[in-house]
## 1
Amino acid sequence: MTTAPAPTAGTPRKEPGPPAGPGPAPARRRPGRLRRIGLPYLLLLPALLLELLVHLVPMVSGVVMSFKQLTQFTLRDWGTAPWTAFDNYRVAVDFDAAVGRELLHSFFVTCGFTVLSVLLCWLLGTAAAIYMQDAFRGRGLLRAVFLVPYALPVYAAVITWVFMFQHDNGLVNHVLHDQLGVTDGRPFWLIGDNSFYALVTVSVWKNWPFAFLIVTAGLQNVPKELYEAAALDGSGMWQQIRHITLPSLRPVNQVLVLVLFLWTFNDFNTPYLLFGKSAPDSADILSIHIYESSFVTWNFGSGAAMSVLLLLFLLLVTGTYLLLTSRGRKARHA
Amino acid sequence: MPEAAAPRRSPTAAPRSFVWSRALFLTLLSGFVLLPVYVMLSSSLKPLQDVSGAFRWLPGEVTLSPYADIWSTIPLARYFLNSLLVAGAATVCSVVVAVFAAYAVSRYEFRGKRVFTVTVLSTQMFPGILFLLPLFLLYVNIGNATGIALFGSRGGLILTYLTFSLPFSVWMLIGYLESVPRDLDEAALVDGCGPLGALFRVVVPAAMPGIVAVTVYSFMTAWGEVLFASVLTNDTTRTLAVGLQGYATQTDVYWNQVMAASLVVSVPVVAGFLLLQRYLVAGLTAGAVK
C-alpha cells in the first residue's frame, strides 16, 4: 500500500504549514513521507477489513453458491458440492413451473408493497415536516412523539401491531366491527388478502418518521432570504411552499426516496415478525420468500440464485435512478 | 429543548387554511403514531383474562403483575444483558472505525478513495438474505479452523452488527467533517500534534454532534436487528430481538406480558433517542443532507 506512487497520495488537501512544507530536515523526511502516504490507508484499514469479512467475502461466496447444488448434506463442505452451471437460475426464472411462478408473484407483491409504502412514507414525512417548519406551541413535544416509531425496536413495535391485528382480541377488529360496524364479521388481518394492507400499515407507521427526520433536516438548509424575497413579492404561504420549499427539497428527496426504496424492498424484519417464517400469499415479500426457499425447504443453491437476481434487480434500479436524477440535475443547472 | 431553528417565513402570516389543515393533519397523525404505544401501555397493566377476551380501551382492573411475571416466564434479564453487551460493544467499535475512515476520506487525497466510498455505500444495497447463509458458514469454518468461536457467540454478533451501521455512519460523518473547518486541524498540526493528535484533540470534539448522531444510529441498529440474531445466537447468547418471541410460542399467548416486556425493552432506546434527537437532526443537517 505504501508503494502507491501517486503524487497526490497522502497529501492533505491544503498544505498544512511547516510539517509538510518544502524544507523539513532531510533525515526526517523519508519516514515522515512514508507515514503520510500510508496514513489514510491505515485509517481506512479497519473499516475495509470488516466490510471485507462480513459483507464482501460472504457475498462473493453467495454468488458462487448460486451456481452449486446445495442441500443440508453438502452444506458444511460447500466448496466441494457439484456445479450446476445456471440450473438454479433456470429454475428460478422458469415462470411456467411452480417455483418460477411463485417467485414472479412474490416479485410483483414486493414491488407493489414497496411503491405504496415509500410513497406514503414520503407524503406523511414531507407534509409533517413542512407543517412543522414554523414554530408553534408544543412543536418540540410533537416532534419527539413523531420520532417514537422510529426509535422503538422493530420487534417491540411489530409485536404490538400483531396484537392489534388479532382476530378475536385485537384493537383493529374491535374498532372496525364492534364500535363502527363497518365490516360484517371480524376480518382476518394476518392471513389472507388483508395481510397486504396490514404489512403496508405497519411498514408506513415504522418508516415515515425517517422521511420526516430527513426532510426536517433538509428544510434547515433552505436559505431564509428566499422566503423573505417571496413574501416581499406578495406570495402567500401555500405559494411559498409550492415554489420555494418543495423545489429546494429536491436533492434531499432524491437520496431519501432511494434509501427508503432499498430499505423497504429488502425489509425482512417487518414481514417476518408480522407473519412468521412463511408469509400469506398476498404479502409474500421477496426477502421472506427467499428465506423460506433456503431455510424451510433446504434448497440453498436455489435460494442463493434468487438473492443474486434480487441484487441484480436492485443494482439496475439504483443505477438507472442515479443516472436519471443526476442527468435531471445537470439539465436544470444548464 | 433548544429548537434547531428553521428559517421562519416571517413576513407572511400563516393563512387560516394553513392553520386549520395543520391542526387536523397533525392531530390525525399523532393518533396513528400513538395508537400502538397506547395499546402497549394499557395492555401491559391488564390481567391475563382482560387481554384474552375482546379488546377494551380501558383496563377493567389495573395490575402491575405482568411487569413482575415477565422476568420468570422467559430469562428476560439474560436476553437484556446480551442485547446490552452486543449493542454497546458494536456501537463503540463501529463509531471508532467510522471516525477513522471518515477522517481519512475527508482530509486526505489518496488513490482508491472513490472506490472505497462507493463500495462501502453500496453494501447498504445488499439484501441481508444473500449473505446470511455464507456468513454463517464462514463463522462456522473460522471456528473450526482457528478455534475462535464466532458462531453462537456474542463476539460474532458484535462483529456483524458493527458493519451494519458502518456504511451509513461513515457517509454521515464524511459529510459532517466537511463542515468542521480545516483551519482547526491545521492549527493543531502547526502546534505539533500528529495527524492522530489533531483528530482526537480537535476534530472529534468539534464533530461531537455528528458523532453522537452516529452513535445513536448504531446502537438502534444493533438493538433492533432480528434476522442475523435468530441464526447466529444460541440459548445463552440470545438477544432480546429473538428472545421476546418466547412469550408468543406458548400454547397461550401472554399478551399482557408481551406488551409489558416490549415496553421495558423499548425504554432505554426510546429515552436515549429522544434525549439525543436534536443531535441527530443537527448531524443529518450538516452531514447526510448536504
## 2
Amino acid sequence: MRYLPLTDQDRKAMLAKVGVADIDALFADIPADKRLKGLVDLPRHKGEAEVERILGRMAAKNVPASSVPFFVGAGAYKHHVPATVDHLIQRSEFLTSYTPYQPEIAQGTLQYLFEFQTQVSLLTGMEVANASLYDGSTGTGEAVLMAHRVTRRNKAVLSGGLHPQYAEVVKTLSHMASDTVVSAPAKPLGDEDLAALIDDQTSCVVVQNPDVFGNVRDLRPLAKACEAKGALLIAVFTEVVSLGLLESPGAMGADIVVGEGQSVGVGLNFGGPYVGLFAAKSKYLRQMPGRLCGETVDAEGKRGFVLTLSTREQHIRRDKATSNICTNSGLCVLAFTIHMTLLGEAGLTRLARINHANAVKLADMLAGVKGVEVLTKSFFNEFTIRVPGKAADVIEKLAAKGVLGGVPYSRLAPKAGLDDLILVANTEVNTDEDRAAFVAALKEVV
Amino acid sequence: MLNNQGRPTAAGEATASAHPTFTGNKALQVEEALLFEIGRAEVTGVDLDEPEAVKSRLGGLERKGAIGLVGLSEPETMRHFVRLSQKNYGIDTGLFPLGSCTMKHNPRLNEKMARLPGFGDIHPLQPQSTVQGGLELISELARYLMVLTGTSAVTMSPKAGAHGELAGMMAIKAAIEAKGEGAKRNVVLVPESAHGTNPATAALIGFVVKSVPARDDGTVHVEDVKALLGPDVAAIMLTNPNTCGIFEPQVVEIAKAMHDAGAYFYCDGANFNAIVGKAKPGDLGIDAMHINLHKTFSTPHGGGGPGAGPVVLSERLAPFAPLPFIRKEGEKLVMVEDASDAGSAQPFGRVTAFHGQMGMFTRALAYMLSHGADGMKQASEDAVLSANYIRAGLSDLMSIPFPDHPSMHEALFDDEWLKDTGVTTLDFAKAMIDEGYHPMTMYFPLVVHGAMLIEPTESESRASLDLFIMALRDLAMAAKKGDTARFSGAPYHAPRRRLDETRAARTPILKWTPPAPAQAAE
C-alpha cells in the first residue's frame, strides 16, 4: 500500500525487537470476543487512477457554479479566487503543520495569524480579533454565549433578518444551555423594531447586516438602544466583501462582530470548510472564545509570535473555559489572508464596487420582468425578489433551463409563510451574458 | 556560475557564528517583515476593472474613511508567504510525533479530489437536483464510517472534534429530555486523563462535570465508575484508546454499567486511528463517538484546521441526530434541512449552517478508498507497532508510567528519569527541535508527571524510526550526563529561540499598529 513505508520484513524485525510473537499481542487489551477476525465489509485498497474514476463519476453528477449563470448566495458566495492562493496554501509547511503550539518552529503560521487578526480587526472596525472559529454560524452561537458571560444575563434577541440557519444554531445552543432566545419575525423589508424587545434580562441583540434578505441596515440607533439597557450589540455578516464598501459594524457601535469569511479565498465547497471571523471591543478580550496570537520576543530579543491568553481555553481551563473549541479553521485563515493581501485596500474596495454595481444592474433588469417585484431598496450584492407562485418551483424550472437563479427563502425557513421570495446574489463573476440569460429564463418560467 | 576551472571549494574558516550577516538572514533562512510593514494601500495583486458608475443603493451607509488595509503585488505576495512557510515544521518536513494529534501523511490525491469543480465549486443551497453527486459522496462516507464503527447512524455536519463532542452530548441531552429526565440527570463523568475539550463541552451545555479518578495503571476501572453512578448521571465521556495510549480493558463493563444506570456512553474518538479494522466501537457499547477526519482519515491539519467531526450514534440516540441529514427517496437523495420534513425523527436542532465540511469529506473518502479494508487495518497495526517499537527502543533510558499494558498508537513516558538532571520535559522537547524533530505532546495527559506522549503514526519507515530512537537516546544520555546547556537554551538552531510567553500574555499585542510618529529632533 503506497502510504505505508513498512515492509513485511520490517514488521517482523520490529515485532522481535518489541518482544511479541505477533501483532495481535499488542491488541491484547481489546476483549477477545470484540476483536475483529478478518477484514471489515468494505472494498480492498485501490490505486490512484481507480479512486479518481470513482470520485470523478460522483463529481460529474453535480453542476459546478462556474459552469452556469449562477446567482446563489444566502450565506455563501461565488467569488473568483486567485491561483496564487491555492498554490500557497498547498505548501507542505502550511498544509501539513499543526496548531502552532511550538512557536520556535511555527512562526510562519503564527505570523499569518497575526496578520489575519489585524486584517479582520480593520475590516470590522473592532479593537481585537481572534484567530478564527469554524464558520459564521457557529461563531454567532459563540458570540451569544460570550455576551451572556459579559453581561451575566441569559436572554438573546435575534433579528428576523438573521440567516435562519444561523438562528437555528443559536436556538439549539441556547436551548441546550437553558438560555432564552427571543426571535423577531422575518420581515423581508427589514422593518423591525428590535429596540422594543430589549429588557433588563437581555444580554445581546443579534442583527445581520446586510440581512438575509439583502437589506443594508443602519445599526447606530440599535447600538444606542442596547447601550441604554446594558445589552451588547452583536453584528453579524455573511458577506465579508460588503465591508469593502459599507460602514464597518465597529464604527456603527457593535460590541461583538462575527461573520463568515468564505467569500475571500475559501470557495464554495458545498458548505464547508469555511472560516468564522470574530472580533470584539478589547474590554471583552478575556471573555473571547478561540485562539489568539500575540507578539512577543525570543531569548535573543527578536520579534516573534505565540498563541496567548490561553488560560481562557479548554486545554487549560477545562470545564471553566470560554469555549470548547480546539481545532479551528487555520488553512482557511491562510487562504483568506493571502487573498486579502492580494486585494489590499485598493482591490477590496474596487471588488466591492463591482459587486454592488452588478447587483444594481441585475435588480433593474429583473424589475422589468412582468410579474416579478424587487423588494429590497438598499442592498449590497444580494436582494430579494417576489415571484408569482412558489419560489422553489421557479428555481427548479430555472435550473432545468441551466440557470441557478438564487435561493428560495422557503428553503431556509419552510414555515415562515414566505413561499414566493427568492434571494438573488450577484458578484463579480457574473457577466452581462449571465444576467441576460437569467432574465430570459425567468421570463419564460413566471 | 559553474565551477569548471578547478577553483578550491573548501571554506577558509569553519565557524559560522563569528560572521553575522548584514540582513540578519542566514542563507535560506530569511527574515520576513510583517505584511503591514511592506504592503501599500494603493497596491493590489488582483486586476479588476473599475465598474461603470451606477447610482449607489447602499442607503447612505457607505464607509466614510479608509479601512487601513494594505496590498502586495502578486510576486511580493508569493515571496512573503513562501518565506513564512519556510519557518514552519510540517509532516512533509519530518517525523511529527505529536501524541493524540495523529500527524500522518497527507496524500495529495485527496487534495486533488477535493478540488474537482463538482465538489469544490458547488453551493450548499443550489437545487438538490444539481448536487446529487455531492449527496452521494456524503452518504458513501457515512456508510464507510458506520461499517468501521459498527453503528447504524452518523451525523455528518460537526465541524471538528470538539464540535462533534458538542453534537453528541446534545443528542444525549435530547434523549434524556425525551424521557422526561432532563431535570434530574445533569452530571457527566469525565476521567482525569481526558482531553480538555470533554469537560469544556459538557459544561457548555449545562452539565456538571465529575472527575473519575485515574488508577495507577493508566486505565479507568469499572468500580470507580460505578461508585459515581446514580440517578443524576447523564453520561460518561471516555476516550478509548485513552490518552495514556492504552485500550481501556474494561470498556465493555463500563458501557454496561452506564446503560444499567440509565445513562449514556460518549466515546471520544480522537484515538480511533489505533483500532480501525481491529475492533468496532459499536460492539463495545458506545452511544456516540466523534471521529476526527483530520486525524484518523488524514485530512490535513493545515496549521490548526479545518477539521471535521462526524458523530456515529447508537440506535438509542439516532432519532435525535441534528439537522441536516440525508434520506433516500427512490433513486433520489434528499438532504433534510428542516424539522418539518424530518418525519418520525426528532432532531434536536442544528449545530451549523449548511451541511458540514464537504472539503474534508472528499479527502477522507479518497483516503479510505485508497487504503481499503485491508490498508486501513494495516495502517492501524503499523501505527501501533511503530509506537511500541519506539517504546522498546527507549525503555532502558526513559521511564514508562504504565508498563503493564502494551501501548496502542502512542507511547507515554513520564519525567521520573529526568529527576535530578536539571532538565525538564519542556527542555527535552525543545532540544528535539534542534535535532530536526517536532516535539512530542508534553505535560498531557495531566495524570502523568511531566508527560511525554509520542505518536509516530504509520507513516514512518523503519530507518526513520531508528534514527529518531537514536537521536532521543543521544539526548537522554546527554541529559543524564549533566549536559544541561544542550537543553536549557534549546532550541539553538530554529528560526526563533524560546519565546517569552509571559510577556505576550501580560501586555497583549494582538494586531499590528502603525508605529508612533518619530519624535521631532530637539
